[in-house]
Write a structure and sequence with these properties.
0% of the residues are buried. The protein is mostly helical and 47 residues long. The chain contains 2 helices and no strands. The chain has one domain.
Length: 47
């Protein structure tokens, strides 16, 4: 059994294209506070 963070990374990794299209794509988890700070002024967030 994996931790919840590892499960999320594995799920996101499934979305990365194979081959050259997937080169350079990074998968990361942000702490909730950091994510909210980055998206605070985003009009698409509905806040």
């Amino acid at each position: 059994m994996r931790c919840p963070g590892c499960e999320l990374i594995a799920q996101e990794r499934d979305q990365v294209p194979e081959g050259r299209a997937g080169y350079g794509i990074k998968i990361t988890l942000l702490p909730r506070q950091a994510y909210e700070a980055l998206h605070r002024d985003d009009p698409t967030s509905g806040r």
